Structures are given as structure tokens and as C-alpha cells.
Amino acid sequence: MGKNVNPTAPQAVRYQGGFWFQAVSAPPILIIIPRFSSSPQSGEVFKRGWNKKYITTGVILRVAFLNPIEYIINMAKLLDWHSFEKRLKDKNILIFSRLDVGRIFGSSSAAASLLLHRYAKKGLITRVKRGLYTFEGVSAVPTLYLANRLYEPSYVSLEFALSYHRVIPETVYEVTSVTTRNTQRFHAIHKIFSYRRIKKEAFTGYAAMRRGAFSFFIADPEKAFVDLAYLKTIRQKDFFERFDNKKINKVKALRYAKLFKNDKLLSFVKNKLQ
After folding, report:
1. Domain range spanning residue 59?
2. Number of structural domains the chain divides into
3. What does the pLDDT look like over 215-228, one tens digit per residue?
């Protein structure tokens, strides 16, 4: 804001084509109508019972009251479905949250949530999990990209990654990942996605792979092996009897095992890769 703003005015913050005013004492939200609004005229904002005008960067602004509910509804109405769909698909964003919508369209988090709720209710988008959506009928999203987005931060590892790298002969249908957050499990788009917690210090050993226009994080064979070995040893569960140790670099695997600072794991990895 310019220095010529009245210091007794509410503090203003630039907000996507307009200004957002936070009232000093009044409970309603004070807002400068964004420039893309059709009414009132761009740059003209007023407030009932308040005749003062404030000048910022050479533009005279009048202030208007909008209560929070009116503001959220009005912001949600600014977007029509075709504009919403086109903008996201043009950016190749097929899985999205209220934070994505707010960032791309410049709306508040509450307005984005309302918009997504309306579109889901109309059957235009599908809820993948709470707070995460995709377009109805979209089948182009790779499963492993979805696995990364469902629970962040995470990367695909454990049994699924070992099968992906052909270290084990079994086909694994549950998409297994590791995370630094709490252990979690989701059913989404007719698949099961599970996430196991590991130490932050050991959250490494993965790479970005690309499938079409999408990229996803998956553990390399050695890290998937060690991640699984760690979870199996601390829970005293049996490890795979059949695995191709020729596809596991022993030096690399031991380096990853040391990150867990677990003597039992280190010994287990050494024995398995003899």
C-alpha cells in the first residue's frame, strides 16, 4: 500500500485483484470488491454508514461490508464449471484439494471448499478421500501418482515396490508406501493404499519416475528391501523367502540400513544378502 493511506483505516492486504480489509473492531469482514467483479464498478467499494475514503497507490477506495458467509458464497459463484474444469485440465491437475483450487483461482480456503462440495454433489467431481477430489470418469491418473497424493509426504515402497522392481515374484495388489506421518490405510478408486511410518532420518532412497505427464516417487530396490526388513524385524514377522538378491546392491542396502540405527536390522540385512 502507498504511504498516503489514512493510518486510522483498517489494515489492508492486497488480495487477488483487489484488497482485503481486516476490521479493527467490527466483526464483519471488510473487503474491497475484486476487479473481476461486475458490480460495483472496479475500484469502487463502499461501506454503509462510513463516508471516509482512503487513497492507495493513487486509487480512491471506498469500503463495503460483506459478512463471512456472503463472502464465501460470492467467491464460490465467481467460477463456473467449464472455466474450473478447463483451467485445471490445462494445467494437468487431475487430482486436487481446496488448497490447489485456492492457489490457482485466488479464492479463500472456505470458498474453495464450498465450490468443491457443490461440484461433488452434482456428480461433476469424485471425492477420492476427505479433502481430495478428481474429475468424474478420469482414468488417466496413474495409481502410483495417486498413492503419493493421497497421503503426503510419502513414497511407494515395501512389497509393492519390490514387486514393481521384480525383486519378488509375487504380484502385489495393495499399493504400499512409507511416510513420516502416522500409519494409515485408504480405499480409493477400487484400490487399497497403505502407509507405514518410518523415521524421518530414513525417509530417503527414492526417485521420481515418470508415466506420461505424471511423475511419482518410488523407492529404489535396495530401499524398498530395507524399509520392509525394518518393519518386519521390529514386529518380528517373517520376511519373504523368495526374492532375487541379485537385484539388490548389498553396499547400498547396508548404507540405507544404517539410517535406522537399529543393530538387529543391520544384522538381518547382512545375513539376507550373503
Report:
1. 11-66
2. 3
3. 999 999 999 999 99
